[in-house]
Amino acid sequence: MTPGTARTKPAGRRGGAVPRLAVRGARLVATLAVTLLGLLFVTFLIGRVVPVDPVLAVVGDRASQSTYDAAYIELGLDKPLYQQFWIFLKNALTGDLGTSILTKKPIVEDIKRVFPATLELATAGILIGTVFGIPLGVLAAVRQGGIADQMIRVFGLIGYSAPIFWLGLLGLLVFYAKLDWVAGPGRIDISYEYSITPATGLLLLDSAMQGQWDAFRNVLAHLALPALLLGYFSMAYISRMTRSFMLNELAQEYIITARVKGVSETRIIWVHALGNAAVPLVTVVALSYAGLLEGSVLTETVFAWPGLGQYLTNSLQNADMNAVLGGTLVIGIIFVGLNLLSDLLYNLLDPRVRRRK
Questions:
Q1: Which one of 17, 54, 238, 249 has the largest count of C-beta atoms within 10 Å of its C-beta?
Q2: Helix (H, G, I), strand (E, B), or coil: what is residue 102?
Q3: Are 293 and 309 in contact (CB under 8 A)?
Q4: How far is Cα 273 from Cα 261, in angstroms, rounded to an integer?
Q5: Are 260 and 342 members of one domain?
Q6: 102 part of a folded domain
Q7: How many domains does the chain have?
Q8: How do residues 174-203 score in pLDDT, each as one tens digit?
Q9: Chain centroid to CA 249: how far?
Q10: For residue 326, is it left (φ>0), alpha (ψ between -120 and 50) or beta?
């Protein structure tokens, strides 16, 4: 092999890397587009098969037949199904999800108003679940079959299987009504509600940025119990999956090799084993976060938390199907987005994927 030939090899590899990245990017965009299109189609079908008459929800059940017929035509329900879907698709792609029957406002504005409350609650919950769930899962795997393992598994089983609304009511009874350790239902006391100028919609962040520390403590007192409840729920799942991933990693040959070489047990567990287990854990945490962001309907209902879950519940109870479908679409987009993010992080963290690039 001549020196000139040796120099041309790396250039060829670099030249081939660009088309591969382009192909991967095109596939990713195509997959995302098809997924979102399928999500829009399923959402549209849900609105057509549910046993709720959208016309009656608008005009009421005492409207005359002529009023009913006029509203039926105005809503486009007289058109063929494919034309209705095309109109729905165009409106959704331009950010028009319709108008809420309940609030008389555009659904996009309603979701912008209620989603920060859900985002704040879900973020606090997933942080609690991740910070405590991963170490507990590691401890359970390291002490497999021991007392610590059994206690962690039982603790997680209760959190994963107990009805979350029951835990919420029990928590309010004990920690609010009896012990008075936390604030009651709602997001903030009315005496502090107007002292915070809305900026991000995240009351903890807004009150801290504006130096309203009394309001900050009040918001934190309201947030503590529902966030701990959701954190316990996600912690149960994350700890169980961490234990499973860690048991698989601790049984691998590279762990035996590291022990033979005299690597400390702490480094083996927390660097080597957990480092490899972190790759699939990214997907677990991301999907858990998406599950909390979808509204945590029961938790928000029990704690009167003015988020997306309570908004969807009120809309469903009042047959406001435009709002229900708009919220459902947002939830689907959240799942797709976080799943995509977890795939990207998976590719960054997994050395086997990096070597194939």
A1: 238
A2: coil
A3: no
A4: 15
A5: yes
A6: no
A7: 3
A8: 999 998 898 888 899 988 888 888 888 899
A9: 27
A10: alpha
Residue 4 has pLDDT above 50, yes or no: no
Extract the tokens encoding 144.
């497999």
Instruction: Give the distance, in angstroms, between the CA of residue 186 and the centroid of all CA atoms in the same chain.
Output: 21
Q: Hey, what are 123's tokens? A: 């973020």
Residues 288 and 179 in one domain: yes
Q: Which of 184, 186, 15 is nearest to 117 (CA)?
A: 186
Token pair belonging to 303: 């704690």
Cα dist from 59 to 74, 101, 218, whole Å? 12, 10, 42
Cβ neighbourhood burial of 233 (10 Å; 0-12, 13-18, 19+): buried
Question: Is there a domain that residue 204 lies in?
Answer: yes
| Token pair of 310 as six digits | 């309570």
Three-class secondary structure of residue 251 per DSSP? coil
And the tokens for 356?
């194939």
Q: What percent of the chain has pLDDT above 90? A: 31
Cα 41 from chain centre? 21
Residues 6 or more apart from 273 whose CB is under 8 A from it?
246, 249, 250, 255
Residue 128 CA to residue 319 CA, distance in Å, equals 35
Determine contact, residues 86/353, Cβ cutoff 8 Å.
no
85, 179, 241 from 135: Cα distances, Å: 48, 30, 12
Q: Do 175 and 188 have their domain in common?
A: yes
DSSP SS3 for 78: coil
Interhelix angle for 107-142 vs 213-250, to 10°? 50
